[in-house]
Amino acid sequence: MSPTKTKPRTESKAGSTQKTTYREAMREAMREALSADERVFLMGEDVGKYGGAFGVSLGLLEEFGPERIRDTPLSESAFTGMGIGAAIAGLRPIVEIMTVNFSLLALDQILNNAATLRHMTGGQLSVPVVIRMTTGAGRQLAAQHSHSLEGWYAHIPGIRVLAPATLEDARGMLAAALADPDPVVIFEHGSLYNLSGDLASPRAPADLTTAAIRRSGDDVTLITYGGSLPKTLAAADLLAEQDGIGAEVIDLRSLRPLDDATVMSSVARTHRAVVIDEAWRTGSLAAEISARITEQAFFELDAAVGRVCSAEVPIPYARQLEEAALPQAAGIAAAAREAVGRHG
Asked: Which one of 24, 45, 76, 150 is the catalytic residue?
């Protein structure tokens, strides 16, 4: 697969910042990967002329041509399997699945092929495929486009699961994921695509193994990821302004493997923890994190681990019902107050 001539681009000066959005940061990450390595190509539904269902790949077809930006039929199992096969053959495919709900049609390929082939062949085969998909609710797209199933994928050995929640991670994680010899699944929360801000240049290499402390605090640890990070930071602001409570906010970033060390270190200082997870509470990633804290830091706790999750219903379409079903800043703040013993 030979690279297509690309248009010249103006790079930011060293040490400068650039105004961008999460969507644009993801696009630039793909553009950089396509330019740097002729083995990289993008495939998925509407990724070409349409520019992607959420506009992430807009313009890439014109730059790199149809051999590198490949529109696929509406068959998640088929094109995900093709991506896995291409990875085994030595290419570096980026497979875009429109939403996490549709990825269930490709779960056989991801679980039974991508995640297992290295182990089943005694290390003879690697599957360096990156699978991107949009996740989450809050955009009135109803149940079949809105669920958060990251915990399902974090359950699977043999894959790495990432949830970039910031501009820096949206821009930086893809290159590191493509360099991984094993499958990587990247969850992009739909509510983050319009997130805007300044992105520093040059960028530090992405770290795919550690969680990040997005806000320091001494009274309670708030643990979250992806689209729930802005709500959790807003809750921390409320706690500081209204109650004088210092909440430490941890962005997990990697959901498999989980960075236990950062979580346990924070809990050892604050002695209280609340996990915020847009998935359903039953069998959730929040349940796994709660169990790990209990196993590893039980004697550091001064209160039971709290959880703020979505209501156990299919995500509603009506805006007021959707908002009621999802974790919100006020509910996160209330759970944190309960953990520190301040009710109201």
From this structure: 76
Instruction: Give how far Cα 231 sits from Cα of 93, 170, 238, 268, 321, Å.
Output: 33, 18, 11, 24, 18
Q: Would you say 45 and 98 are in contact if contact means Cβ atoms under 8 Å apart?
A: yes
* Tens digit of pLDDT at every position of the chain (344 positions): 433 333 333 344 556 888 999 999 999 999 999 999 999 999 999 999 999 999 999 999 999 999 999 999 999 999 999 999 999 999 999 999 999 999 999 999 999 999 999 999 999 999 999 999 999 999 999 999 999 999 999 999 999 999 999 999 999 999 999 999 999 999 999 999 999 999 987 677 788 999 999 999 999 999 999 999 999 999 999 999 999 999 999 999 999 999 999 999 999 999 999 999 999 999 999 999 999 999 999 999 999 999 999 999 999 999 999 999 999 999 999 999 999 997 65
Question: Catalytic residue at 76?
Answer: yes
Based on the residue annotation, tell me whether 189 is a catalytic residue of this protein: no
Using DSSP's 3-state secondary structure scheme, residue 120 falls into helix
Q: Helix crossing, 167-179 with 22-36: angle to 10°? A: 30
pTM for the model: 0.93
Contact 184, 130 (CB under 8 A): yes
What DSSP string runs through 273-316? EEEEEEEESTT-HHHHHHHHHHHHHGGG-SSPPEEEEE-SSPPP
Active-site hit among 45, 96, 145, 322: 145
Q: CB neighbours of 262 closer than 8 A, spacing ≥ 6?
A: 210, 211, 212, 213, 250
